[in-house]
């Protein structure tokens, strides 16, 4: 969940902000070698190219995409079309539309006057090279409108609506990117990924919490190590899930489906981020009040078997434990145990039959 936080400019905070920003470095791997051209990339990134991208996504296209994404989300969560609250749908799609208008405004504002012509320059993790504002600046610019968008889901008449938010943004992002060329996708995708993660993954709050730690503290060194490994951790857990549950299927499809893969990897990153936030804040509250309710909404709304949730949780714990030393394990153990106990209680509350779950001890 997105919460407004004040980020202090300490060395510890800046270190983690740098790692957070790396998540949004544009990825050129999606562009085929046959069609790759530095000149075409330079054109797409120019002020004129960015204006053209925005023009392709003019108001009516954005509006239709936001409406389509909402309908797809409702269908995914098992709604019967004739009982959809149309006023609620219009309100939420209106605020989604405003989010994307703001994204395009920022996208046009940060045009590049020049892109270095070398391949090495494009491999830089410096977002400024790509015409993307500093991550704190991007977060600050989008925070007011994202908080209002989130509030529309919170006040919804349906208890599952907050769980719709990342799904709606995910569907919207896919529809938007389909309208663009390969290079336009490379340049705009980081903004869309940022928005989707910003409402679900508390990276910014982790950075803010780092202000309470010295840069050479065991906690901060550990968090820095784990954030850098986050994508690999998510991929390892996901691969094991596919192997262990080859026949698993939810409303969205099989585990191996590309859309399900994407959502699983995003959510595994979310689990990691909430664990690091709890560690830095020395409290289980973020997991108990945010992550657990969201998981319950999704599990029931998308018809995910509880077996999947249990395997997910256990593989998550095993993967994290496999990467830590004795000192780090001592730091983590209360939070990993707390997470497992929290999911066990939720499992009982939802009425699932008992099943032995391995302990992290």
Question: In percent terms, what proportion of residues is strand?
Answer: under 5%
The mean pLDDT is 84
As laid out across the biggest beta sheet, the strand order is 1-2
Pairing-aware structural class of the strands and helices?
Answer: mainly alpha
List low-confidence stretches. Answer: 354-361
Specify Rg, calculated over alpha carbons. Answer: 21 Å
Count the DSSP helices: 15
The description of the largest β-sheet is: 2 strands, antiparallel
Q: Topology as H/E string? A: HHHHHHHHHHHEEHHHH
The strand count comes to 2
In angstroms, what separates the terminal alpha carbons? 30 Å
Shape category: globular
Helix content: 55-70%
Which properties best describe this structure?
single chain; 361 residues; mainly alpha; two-stranded antiparallel ribbon; 15 helices; 2 strands; 1% strand; globular; disordered C terminus
Can you walk me through this structure?
With 361 residues, the chain is mostly helical. The protein is 68% helix and 1% strand. Strand 1 (249-250) and strand 2 (253-254) form a beta hairpin. Helix 4 (59-76) crosses helix 8 (161-177), helix 8 packs antiparallel against helix 9 and helix 10 (203-209) runs parallel beside helix 12.
Summarize the structure.
The chain is mostly helical. It has 15 helices and 2 strands.
Strand and helix map with partners:
Elements: H1 11-22, H2 38-45, H3 47-56, H4 59-76, H5 86-109, H6 119-122, H7 135-154, H8 161-177, H9 182-198, H10 203-209, H11 218-244, E1 249-250, E2 253-254, H12 258-281, H13 285-301, H14 306-321, H15 326-349
Antiparallel strand pairs: 1-2
Helix pairs in contact: 1-10, 1-11, 3-5, 4-5, 4-8, 5-7, 8-9, 8-13, 10-12, 11-12, 11-14, 12-13, 13-15, 14-15
């Amino acid at each position: 969940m997105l919460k407004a936080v004040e980020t202090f400019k300490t060395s510890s905070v800046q270190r983690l902000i740098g790692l957070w920003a790396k998540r949004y470095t544009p990825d050129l791997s999606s562009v085929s070698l046959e069609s790759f051209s530095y000149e075409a990339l330079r054109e797409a990134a120019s002020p004129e190219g960015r204006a053209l991208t925005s023009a392709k996504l003019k108001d009516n296209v954005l509006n239709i995409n936001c409406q389509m994404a909402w309908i797809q989300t409702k269908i995914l969560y098992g709604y019967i079309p004739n009982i959809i609250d149309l006023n609620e749908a219009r309100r939420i799609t209106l605020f989604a539309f405003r989010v994307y208008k703001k994204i395009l405004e920022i996208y046009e504002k940060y045009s590049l006057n020049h892109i270095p012509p070398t391949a090495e320059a494009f491999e830089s993790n410096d977002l400024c090279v790509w015409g993307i504002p500093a991550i704190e600046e991007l977060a600050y610019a989008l925070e007011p409108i994202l908080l209002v968008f989130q509030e529309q889901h919170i006040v919804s008449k349906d208890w599952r609506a907050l769980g719709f938010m990342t799904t709606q943004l995910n569907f919207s992002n896919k529809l938007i990117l389909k309208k663009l060329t390969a290079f336009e996708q490379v340049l705009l995708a980081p903004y869309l990924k940022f928005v989707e993660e910003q409402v679900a993954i508390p990276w910014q709050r982790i950075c803010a919490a780092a202000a309470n730690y010295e840069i050479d503290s065991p906690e901060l060194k550990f968090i820095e190590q784990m954030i850098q490994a986050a994508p690999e951790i998510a991929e390892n857990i996901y691969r094991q899930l596919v192997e262990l549950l080859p026949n698993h299927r939810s409303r969205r499809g099989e585990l191996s489906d590309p859309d399900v893969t994407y959502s699983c990897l995003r959510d595994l990153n979310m689990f990691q981020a909430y664990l690091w936030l709890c560690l830095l804040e020395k409290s289980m509250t973020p997991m108990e009040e945010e992550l657990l309710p969201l998981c319950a909404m999704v599990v029931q709304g998308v018809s995910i078997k509880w077996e999947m949730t249990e395997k997910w949780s256990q593989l998550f714990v095993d993967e994290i434990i496999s990467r830590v030393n004795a000192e780090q394990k001592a730091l983590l153990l209360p939070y990993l145990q707390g997470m497992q106990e929290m999911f066990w209680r939720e499992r009982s509350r939802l009425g699932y039959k008992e099943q032995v779950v391995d302990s992290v001890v």
